[in-house]
Design brief:
Structural class: alpha/beta
Number of domains: 2
Largest sheet: 7 strands, parallel
Mean pLDDT: 92
Strand content: 5-15%
CATH topology of the largest domain: Rossmann fold
Number of helices: 16
CATH architecture of the largest domain: 3-Layer(aba) Sandwich
Strand order of the largest sheet: 3-2-1-4-5-6-7
Helix content: 40-55%
Distance between the termini: 8 Å
CATH class of the largest domain: Alpha Beta
Length: 362
């Protein structure tokens, strides 16, 4: 069986690492995986280093698409992926998450009548202004195998009339944290390099278009980071290329008292999250990772796909109002110092996915 896996962005590299490992462990003779990197994330810090650190086989094909508007980028990906699929003739295409790479891979396969499997199916923010939400919805509706991380995701699909091919397997990101957190703790030197003490700093990330493309929202977020850094504890902020470009465009000056870094390798980010006093992010993946590390999280958006974390009190949606963010940061605690409930499976989602691919693919 030949499976083409489409990846293009940092979170997808991480998820693909554990699923590709499960392919090699469970079905090395039955599955040939052809890894295709669209090039959506093309910076070394966002791409190459992940393949090295996580032990992902080097992509067989790198399309080198690069950046662009959503339509232009997706269109170039669609054309290039279609050509790959016609040449490789796989039995199935495997896509992850909600990026333009996900959508392009799913559409190209569906139009060629190649079955599509979607990892992280069923997530919904119910905000159609987010390009990621459109990508999720369309991808789910052209997929025939839908690997859901939670009960909520399963129910979302059923509400949209999708009832076939749904499998609640758990979250592959939990597999990743269980696999790589001990390696990060042993090998990452990031706390020493940045002169940080465990639980003595905040970790922030900002990259969503809804925040970076709106100067008022972005400025309010930066005001909050500056005040938290001044009043409460140092703020460590790996600055995403999209965000840095936006700040230059809006002529927003950075406060050099913040601990600013370039995007960091996965193991360093895991170590920073595990030891942070609080995570402040607009990233869906980091909301979950903070939960897995039992670190409180403030979501810098107006909604979240990961409603399970907010319903249990482990994650607060604070939007972009500076005052609200500062107040929440001052009081952020992981509820009762308790252990995270098992909301995202048992850490064996990747094994379940591979077993289902073997049994469900003709």
């Amino acid at each position: 069986m030949r499976i083409v896996t489409i990846v293009g962005a940092r979170p997808q590299f991480v998820k693909a690492s554990v699923v590709s490992k499960a392919f090699r462990k469970l079905a090395p003779q039955r599955i040939q995986e052809i890894l295709v990197h669209t090039g959506q994330h093309y910076d070394t810090e966002l791409s190459d280093v992940f393949f090295r650190q996580l032990g992902i086989p080097k992509p067989v094909i790198n399309l080198g698409i690069g950046s662009g508007t959503n339509g232009a980028q997706t269109g170039r990906m669609l054309e290039s992926i279609e050509q790959v699929l016609m040449e490789e003739r796989p039995d199935r295409v495997l896509v992850y998450g909600d990026t333009n790479s996900t959508l392009a891979g799913a559409l190209a396969a569906a139009k060629l009548h190649i079955p599509v499997a979607h990892v992280e199916a069923g997530l919904r923010s119910f905000n159609r202004h987010m390009p990621e939400e459109i990508n999720r919805v369309v991808t789910d509706h052209v997929s025939d195998l839908l690997f859901c991380p939670t009960k909520t995701a399963v129910e979302n699909l059923r509400q949209e009339g999708i009832v076939r091919g749904i499998h609640q397997v758990g979250d592959v990101m939990y597999d990743c944290v269980l696999t790589f957190a001990p390696i990060a703790e042993q090998n990452s030197k990031i706390l020493g390099e940045l002169n940080l003490k465990p639980k003595g700093y905040f970790l922030a990330t900002i990259h969503r278009a809804e925040n970076t493309d709106d100067p008022a929202r972005l400025k309010s977020l930066l005001d909050a980071l500056f005040e938290i850094n001044r009043r409460l504890a140092p703020v460590v902020w790996p600055v995403h290329p999209r965000t840095r470009k936006a700040m230059l465009s809006y002529k927003i000056t950075l406060d050099d008292s913040l601990c600013l870094t370039a995007p960091l390798p996965y193991l360093d980010m895991q170590q920073l999250m595990a030891n942070a006093r609080c995570v402040m992010t607009d990233s869906g993946g980091m909301q979950k990772e903070a939960f897995f590390h039992q670190v409180p999280c403030l979501t810098l958006r107006d909604e979240t796909e990961w409603v399970e974390t907010t319903e249990c009190g482990y994650n607060q949606i604070v939007g972009t109002d500076a005052k609200k963010i500062i107040e929440a940061a001052a009081t952020a605690r992981f509820p009762n110092g308790s252990k995270s409930p098992e909301l995202f499976g048992n850490g064996k989602a990747s094994l379940a996915i591979v077993n289902l691919l073997v049994t469900q693919t003709s």
